[in-house]
Amino acid sequence: MGALAGFWVLSLITYGYLCWGQDLDEEGSLRAQVEERPEAGTAAASQPHLIFILADDQGFRDVGYHGSEIKTPTLDKLAAEGVKLENYYVQPICTPSRSQFITGKYQIHTGLQHSIIRPTQPNCLPLDNATLPQKLKEVGYSTHMVGKWHLGFYRKDCMPTKRGFDTFFGSLLGSGDYYTHYKCDSPGVCGYDLYENDNAAWDYDNGIYSTQMYTQRVQQILASHDPTKPLFLYVAYQAVHSPLQAPGRYFEHYRSIININRRRYAAMLSCLDEAIHNVTLALKRYGFYNNSILIYSSDNGGQPTAGGSNWPLRGSKGTYWEGGIRAVGFVHSPLLKNKGTVCKELVHITDWYPTLISLAEGQIDEDIQLDGYDIWETISEGLRSPRVDILHNIDPIYTKAKNGSWAAGYGIWNTAIQSAIRVQHWKLLTGNPGYSDWVPPQAFSNLGPNRWHNERITLSTGKSIWLFNITADPYERVDLSGRYPGIVKKLLRRLSQFNKTAVPVRYPPKDPRSNPRLNGGVWGPWYKEENKKKKTNKTKAKKMQKKSKARTRKQLAARSSTKCHPSVSTG
């Protein structure tokens, strides 16, 4: 560990940080094309401009202010001048975090509690959920999305432009080539995945790296929008998700990193940091900055096999250990009352839904049961968070723990089921939480996972339940389930209460009609609405026929009843 720490310090001293104000025109800035709009002469909108930037697979350690050897001067500066969220949680994989951000609801309340939405599945975010952009449009916001959707697309009604966004430019799937925007889900099931609103964006099939291409689109949106009218901009970058690709010049500062995956990942993150620098410049240039709220978040923990690092947290992406769900996050805004602070109150990704709607002066219907809380005063003024617990998830489909049982759960809960919950300082996990090692940044080894510098842990035989005091033990090194059975029972009961409100899991089998070969070589909606209407009409016709036959039978029975039974004499 001393050697690791020494290397990180030496790396920072040797290479330094990139300059905050450096000229980055070659990455697509519009500075030379449009004159800067002076903010002083711009009438500010009463509603703030809302900019939500979501990084993909960025590890907890992978930001300069968390001690990373990767240089992120933009993120460091924005966070230092805003509010760092150091008790901030997301979900362990892509679709769940995105669904919870856009609905304010836990996975168990949307049916997306298992895995992600696969490209070939006839599945999407349920259409009966009012999305964040839809609520913002109700109060006059222009809504734009740039980047990765990953909330399903099998029907046209599932597309971003049908879920509240005025415009959409980006990808529908969870990953793909950064230059060609091409994705294979399996052999022979491949297609193009870049969209402009509801159509394939073939005009952009020109080899531009997606991080830079998305930044250019953000700049264009800001250049063309009237800053006196409220704007919601959701920027979901593809970076730093695999495949590990980056323009060559971003490797310059990381030649000392021997591990090739870590080196590529570092280059990708540096490019992302520079992109956010350009977005921030555009906000200032076009008159948005002084009345804007910029939120930055990762969607889940990093994946060590793909260069990410969550050190010193335990576990990785796809797990319910802290390394999978505790995220990099901050808020940067001139509208913050307490700038340059650290928020250690409990915050979850579902909280952005009610928080942003409240900031936008919108309304949340009383009959909508949200799982998020309005946490603006917590962030801006340092008040206590209204949140005291987080349901990380209950997944009844995930592989059951062999040694889990109702007995191990005191008759309250079947510990074979994968679940995780946080209540105040306490965190409880049951079932199979996932890969549980502590993995330091892989800067020195290029020999693969079998030769990593890591702390391996073999789960105790028969183990299916864990309890940690996260405030005292954020690295989950001391299991307290045997010492505090009363706390375990309390959290198990809370899990059981949540489970009673769960809706059925939506995880349909793949549909062969989804193959891009059948859709002009493009990933896109394949479910034909007219087929549904025909089937619906046929179903209705059959029901009407059944009802008609039933009425006829009743009428015949009534008639026969009158004819066959003689009247009874009363005298």
From TrEMBL:
Biased composition (Basic residues): 533-556
Domain named Sulfatase N-terminal: residues: 48-360
Leader sequence segment: 1-21
Positions of region (Disordered): 504-571
Entry-linked Pfam families: Sulfatase
Domain of life: Eukaryota
Cofactor: Ca(2+)
Protein name: Arylsulfatase J
Organism annotation: Apodemus speciosus
